[in-house]
Design goal:
With about 1000 residues, the chain is of the alpha+beta class. Helices cover about 45% and strands about 25% of the residues. The chain contains 34 helices and 34 strands. About 35% of the residues are buried.
């Protein structure tokens, strides 16, 4: 009986609890929970079973039924009473927590462990657009793809039991907008301690971020953000309600709701407080404790206004309290007091808490806005400063409508456009005063197309009609255009002037070098690059010393530097070293450049190349010297010859009067021989000075050479070989046969003396043509057809110093008694007397070549023949390396070969030529090489080139004979020989022939 009664009581309690829980959960969730219905069904079944058991018991013991029924009635009455009391308590709790959830300002969503939505509050619907009815029991697909990874990491942390607080990410709304979100989430547990799901608080910080980017709108954005967050917080409580409704019993639901709210309350990033209706503190979160310095134990139950409101703001605080008592949401920016008495700027957001339509308290949020206010104050100060800058800017600043009517213009623009005032300008407009209206249309079209215009250069008309060249910028802002106008009229004129100056410098024939005050080169013009061989990259950044040569001592450079650093200009002739090592002479002027304060900041050096002029001056000086010596020698010889004539005559008279056996007769004979010897010397001097009359007639030099050869073979030592190479056609000149024979004999004797151990004398004749290039470089020569008489030897040769004096009278390197020094002087005089030209090529240990150019006599039909084919030579596009120490030869070669289409590289000595060939041999198709060059010399150079490349094509160009050193070069592997001075057409024909490989390698190509 007792056991049955217990079962009946328990069954009744279970039924009562299930029904009550089902009712409460259906009230919170809006529908009856299937779980609750299942529990009710099971309880009903249990009661039925218990009833059947009771019936059996009644059958067994009918006498006890009435007693049991009485006990059951009493028990039911007691249970009914407890049920009514408990239901009242649960209903009151449900109403209170439901208000908090629904009033949450932050979007709040609750998920079960399958990530399905079990609750979301109205703030979520307001923010993201989905209603609870749309998402109940479903997953939300509102995570952007790019945020999946970080979201999954946050979920993993939450599942590990961590509290993810203020995690920044992004979420999509129902209508596709992308919001910046601060997210807080954590697990909640069922009464058995197992994870039952998680609650997620989402805070929309999109507008907050935009507020940071636009400080001027920070105040309004902040208030709106606070209001939204507070509203979301209240609505979050409603979301908790939905989760609680899924719990099986009312006590579990109440516990979960409390957990939700406490989590929300504690996790709030703002200082939050719950007040009762008397303004006493019920609870505060940790952020409130941090902001005001009070712990919850210190202030719980105390009046909030007594704690954080200063005396002067009590009335304000009471007014806010009154508003909340009238069920109003209040917002206010004000000042509150911390525990230590310090003040803090805060924004307050207060929400009334109601239960059964009656206000039971206040939920208030305090946000520290000290930093924001400071930023706002800074913004206001910045705006003021910006306004001052705009108003006082040197550049014009404007704002107009699309028609060009002025809305704003600063003082600089008013003055720039020559208006008297802003009102004056406003009446006319700015953009309407274009010099060319097409520019206005282009400006407006670009603005409408792109929204802005940068660096728009245009001409505007001032009020007076003057043209201002300006640069405009513009930005489209609705129906207005804002921008700046920079007057570049003077700058543009200055730039154009500088461009003209720079163009003049760039195109100047003289080389220009600009350096800083220390002599570091900062600029060189193209003329310098062409002359020096240095590129801009080679020379810029280097000191002037890179051009220094050994032709000047240190005192020369010291004096130059002293003058220019003192602020004066230096001018003079200077020798500079080029990139290839050669020296060039310049007429140079170095001037200091000062800045506006008068300080020297740069030096500019203007250099005119006078290398060829110097060479011609030296030739002119030599010619003048020879002319002067000839005049002097002729005058002395004439008078001295007269004196010798008198001595010789009287000596002969005395000899006729004195007996031969007389001792004085022998002395008279010696005087007579000396007088005749003196007369011979005077005749030689007269020949040098061209005072001797010549008897000219047509003379074939070929025949003259054969006669001299026959004479020499009978007189010179046998160990000296004579070799003759005559032109194919007659070499006819107008000349005195005796003088020409004398000249050839003198040169042959001079060659013989240079070869005491034996050697070879080569005599050659050829018909050549001297062109303008040759004559410009050789003072005294004239263009035309000539017969070249060349006499070479293989003797010891001469150095440069001897060559400079070789034709001077009485200058000799022979021992005393072995020569008078008049032999070559006579040859010089004979050549000049025949309007000819003579050159000497020589190098120590190489030999000597004399070349005599005598004007050729025209033969019938020869003139036309000589001109045939002139200028009809063939060029090419190959690369040629030209190695020659003579500057004018290099310049001539570069000019001729470039005009013919070739690419030309140059070198001044054997070492640089060899190095250049070694580095560029894949590009070089032909080497043109002089035999007499500084350094290793031409012979060693071509031998080394052939070691590098045995198939290298080398053309020898030299003043030596083709049958002397030139022949040796041909035998060593050179492909041809061209004698200096060369005929342009023959040179180019020979080059083309070698490049085309038309002849056998053993053939000697020779152009005299």
């Amino acid at each position: 009986m007792k056991l049955r009664t217990v079962f009946l009581v328990l069954a009744s309690l279970a039924l009562f609890t299930a029904m009550t829980g089902g009712y409460l959960f259906s009230t919170l969730a809006g529908s009856t929970s299937s779980l609750s219905l299942s529990v009710c069904f099971l309880i009903i079944v249990l009661i039925g079973l218990l009833c059947r058991e009771g019936e059996k018991a009644i059958i067994r013991d009918v006498s006890e039924r009435q007693k049991a029924e009485e006990e059951i009635r009493k028990l039911n009455e007691e249970l009914e009473k407890r049920f009514i009391e408990r239901s009242a308590e649960l209903f009151e709790s449900e109403q209170r927590h439901g208000s908090l959830l629904e009033a949450s300002a932050d979007p709040l969503v609750v998920y079960d462990m399958e990530r399905k939505v079990t609750y979301l509050n109205p703030a979520f619907t307001d923010t993201f657009g989905w209603s609870f009815e749309e998402l109940r029991g479903k997953r939300i697909d509102f995570v952007p793809e790019e945020n999946w990874k970080e979201t999954q990491e946050a979920i993993d942390r939450m599942l590990r039991g961590e509290k993810v607080q203020l995690f920044e990410t992004r979420r999509l709304t129902k209508d596709g907008r992308l919001l910046d979100i601060q997210l807080s989430t954590s697990l909640f547990l069922d009464r058995d301690g197992h994870p039952a799901g998680n609650i997620v608080i989402l805070r929309d910080v999109t507008e907050s971020k935009q507020a940071e980017e636009a400080l001027r709108r920070a105040h309004d954005d902040l208030e709106r953000s606070v209001a939204e967050r507070t509203s979301e917080l209240l609505r979050a409580n409603e979301q908790l309600k939905l989760e609680i409704e899924e719990r099986k019993r009312a006590e579990e639901e109440l516990s979960l709701q409390k957990t939700y709210f406490q989590h929300l309350f504690e996790s709030s990033p703002e200082a939050s407080v719950i007040l009762d209706k008397e303004d006493r503190i019920v609870d505060v979160n940790s952020e409130f404790e941090k902001l005001f310095g009070y712990s919850v134990e210190e202030i719980k139950g105390r009046y909030i206004n007594d704690l954080i409101v200063s005396e002067d703001l009590r009335d304000e605080a009471r007014a806010l309290t009154q508003c909340t008592l009238e069920n109003q949401v209040v917002t206010k920016e004000t000042v509150r007091r911390r525990k230590g008495g310090s003040l803090v700027d805060v924004s307050i957001l207060g929400y009334p808490i109601t239960y059964n339509g009656e206000q039971v308290g206040v939920y208030a949020i305090y946000k520290d806005v000290t930093q924001r206010r400071r930023r706002e104050e800074a913004l206001r100060a910045s705006e003021k400063q910006y306004r001052n800058l705009v108003d006082n800017a040197l550049v014009g600043i404007y704002r107009t409508d699309l028609e060009g009517n002025v809305v704003y213009a600063n003082e600089a623009l008013i003055k720039m456009m020559e208006f008297e005032s802003y009102e004056d300008m406003k009446s006319v407009g700015v953009l309407a005063r274009y010099s060319n209206l097409d520019d206005r249309d282009t400006f407006i079209k670009t603005l409408k197309g792109t929204g802005k215009v940068n660096h728009f250069e245009v001409d505007l008309l001032t009020k007076s009609g003057a043209v201002k060249n300006v640069i405009m910028t513009g930005v489209m802002e609705g129906d207005f255009i804002s921008g700046m106008i920079l007057d570049i009229t003077e700058r543009k004129q200055a730039v154009e002037e500088r461009i003209r100056l720079a163009t003049a410098v760039e195109q100047a024939a003289e080389s220009v070098i600009i350096s800083d005050r220390r002599g570091t080169i900062q600029y060189v013009n193209p003329a310098f690059v062409r002359l020096s061989g240095f590129s801009s990259e080679d020379i810029v950044g280097k000191n002037f010393r890179v051009l220094k040569s050994d032709r000047h001592d240190e005192s020369f450079y010291h004096e130059m530097w002293k003058i220019i650093t003192s602020g004066k200009a230096w001018g003079g002739r200077i020798s500079n070293r080029m990139k290839d090592g050669s020296l060039r002479q310049f007429e140079t002027t170095i001037s200091p450049i000062r800045d506006s304060s008068g300080v020297i900041v740069n030096f500019v050096s203007v250099n005119r190349d006078v290398t060829q002029e110097v060479a011609l001056e030296a030739q002119l000086f030599q010619a003048q010297k020879m002319e002067a010596v000839g005049t002097l020698a002729g005058g002395i010889a004439h008078d001295f010859n007269n004196l010798l004539q008198v001595i010789q005559g009287y000596t002969e008279v005395l000899q006729s009067e004195v007996d031969r056996n007389n001792s004085g007769f022998e002395a008279l004979q010696k005087i007579h021989r000396s007088a005749k010897r003196g007369a011979e010397l005077t005749r030689q001097l007269l020949t040098f000075s061209r005072k001797v009359q010549s008897e000219r007639r047509p003379l074939d030099l070929n025949q003259e050479v054969i006669q001299v050869k026959n004479l020499l073979e009978r007189t010179i030592p046998k160990m000296i070989e004579i070799e003759v190479h005559l032109s194919d056609s007659p070499a006819v000149v107008s000349a005195d046969p005796i003088q020409i024979e004398q000249a050839i004999m003198n040169l042959a004797v001079n060659a013989m003396d240079a070869m005491p151990e034996g050697g070879k004398i080569v005599v050659e004749t050829a018909r050549v043509r001297l062109d303008e290039h040759f004559c410009k470089a050789h003072l005294g020569s004239k263009p035309g057809e000539y017969i070249l008489l060349s006499i070479s030897d293989t003797g010891h040769g001469m150095d440069r110093e001897i060559l400079d004096h070789v034709f001077e009278p009485f200058y000799t390197t022979k021992d005393v008694g072995k020569g008078t020094g008049l032999g070559l002087a006579m040859v010089y005089g004979i050549v000049k007397n025949h309007e000819g030209y003579i050159l000497c090529y020589s190098e120590l240990a190489t030999g000597t070549t004399f070349k005599i150019y005598l004007p050729a006599m025209e033969q019938s039909g020869e003139k036309q023949k000589a001109g045939e084919g002139e200028g009809c030579f063939k060029g090419g596009n190959e690369t040629i390396l030209l190695v020659d120490d003579e500057e004018y030869i290099r310049e001539l070669g570069v000019e001729l070969l470039t005009d013919a289409g070739y690419k030309v590289l140059t070198a001044t000595n054997g070492e640089s030529g060899l190095e250049l060939y070694r580095n560029e041999q894949e590009k070089i198709d032909l080497v043109i090489l002089d035999l007499v060059i500084p350094g290793m010399g031409g012979k060693k150079c071509y031998e080394e080139i052939l070691k590098i490349n045995p198939k290298a094509k080398i053309l020898i160009v030299s003043g030596y004979s083709a049958n002397g050193p030139g022949k040796e070069a041909i035998q060593a592997g050179a492909k041809g020989f061209v004698g200096k001075p060369f005929d342009v057409s023959h040179l180019l024909e020979t080059i083309r022939e070698i490049l085309d490989e038309k002849s056998e390698m053993s053939d000697m190509r020779c152009v005299m």
